[in-house]
Amino acid sequence: MSALLQTVAGPLSVSDVRGPVLAHEHLALDLTRGAGSAATLTPGHRAAITEELVSLREEFGLALVVELTCRGMGRDVAAMARIAADSSVAVVAATGWYYEPVRPAELTRTSPEQLARTLIGEIERGCGGSGIRPGVIGEVGSHGELPGEAEAGALRAAALAATSTGLSVATHARFGRGGLAQLELLTAAGLPPHRVSIGHQDLIDDPAVHRELAASGAYVAFDTVGREGYRSDRVRLRLLLALLESGFADRVLLSCDVWRHGYLVSEGGMGYGHLFRSFLPRLRAAGVDEETIDGLTRRNPLRFLTGTDGASGAREAEGRAPAGGSGR
Fold first, then answer.
1. Is 314 among the domain residues?
2. The overall pTM is greater than 0.85
3. Where do the record's region annotations for Disordered lie (predicted)?
4. Is the bond preceding residue 139 a cis peptide, omega within 30 degrees?
5. Which secondary-structure segment (H or E) carries 60?
6. Is 326 contained in some domain?
7. Fewer Cβ atoms within 10 Å of its own Cβ: the N or the C terminal residue of the chain?
């Protein structure tokens, strides 16, 4: 029997995901409290977002978006469901808590065990009475080399909920810092490393950290591709090639992390398609073959979401994508 993903439209067989996956994006959020007025993707942006996803589905076979807007980030799962239906691109919604500057008050007065029960309730019954169930826990955040007290509680809660429900956990490591500490905390709470994706690792120029994370079995997310103001794609490419050359092609996730409306193509930004239109061609020019690119953009995120260790494999995710389904 094929493994199933939980999407905003209900369960989806992994074997039906035949095109690439964007492993860390946002389609509907409001971070004005923590990041300013530009940090929004509102109902007014919905048509432009849908148009972008339709274009990527038609041109590159985009099959799935992992939407990591969680509690306290202005999450709108109903909007995600409408975008998924209108674009014919599947969307996985998330639950969890972001990093400290935008933490809800509930994090300061509640134990990790109680927080975990809140997450489990959303995973089993849906978000906010919508009936729309999340398929991943994330982006659970911290903002320094070590998580703060509230951030550590949210990470422990994520691990407890993940071990109880079978979902995987995606983190937000601000500017790439603190990923090893996040992983240590999550695994100490009982979560296997292959069910963890450490976020924003393309923002630190530290191949040794990337190798250590990957060697543990965790996924290393190069998920701010195209964000030149943070790190150039030239450096991202060098870091990614180093990780591939070290033998960790099965531990990498790729995405663009669109979280400001100014990043949309309609507003002159890089858009959700920068990975396919700019970065992957440079990866191919560097000699990376299509089998590896299909792994980076499809098989790896499917293994991560389903919690299947790459060592044993998720056979449904290992099938070759049809022509045009790996980012061409």
1. no
2. yes
3. 305-328
4. yes
5. helix 46-60
6. no
7. N
